[in-house]
Design brief:
The chain has a three-stranded parallel sheet with strand order 1-2-3. It is elongated. The termini are far apart. It is mostly helical and 168 residues long.
């Protein structure tokens, strides 16, 4: 008989993957901080991933607009970069590095070993719902990708099209 497993971030954490929002995601954002207080502008509070994801969807618009005021376009300039600086900055502001975070964790799978308790628990006929972006099931336990549903999307797959995307 097949079993349906529902897995969250604790599964990846048990494998030692860097998938905590604090410090792993927070350090990534602060390390590449594009403007002072970027992490704070997302208003991320609490200790659960659901709260983090809610916060990412609710950027403090007033804070963002205040930041963008320091990037006025120079419409008289002949250089396109002077005219479009505010556009570039807005793209950076809205381009939260969640993809880089997920790719970093997924890359760590190359140095990660499967755990015996899961090897004996998972069967070939089982199905998986996972909130994780990583391919821990597929790479460490040989689970057929058609048996795994990544509820929030997965590394290397376009959320819009569902097509695998080549890494550059």
């Amino acid at each position: 008989m097949a079993t349906l497993f529902v897995l969250g971030n604790g599964f990846d954490l048990q494998h030692g993957l860097p998938t905590k929002y604090d410090p792993h995601l927070k350090d990534l954002v602060i390390g590449a901080e594009r403007f002072p207080g970027e992490w704070e502008s997302y208003g991320i509070e609490g200790d659960s991933w659901s709260r983090v994801e809610e916060s990412l969807a609710e950027l403090d618009v007033d804070y963002a607009l205040e930041h963008l005021e320091s990037w006025p376009p120079d419409l008289a300039s002949v250089r396109e970069s002077d005219r479009d600086a505010i556009i570039h900055e807005a793209e950076q502001l809205l381009g939260f590095p969640l993809v880089s975070f997920a790719e970093n964790a997924d890359a760590k799978l190359a140095d990660t070993q499967p755990q015996r308790k899961f090897c004996t628990l998972f069967g070939a006929d089982d199905f998986f719902l996972t909130f994780n972006y990583t391919h821990t099931l597929e790479r460490l336990y040989g689970v057929d990708p058609s048996r795994v549903l990544h509820l929030h999307g997965e590394v290397g797959v376009s959320v819009k099209t569902g097509l695998r995307v080549a890494r550059m």
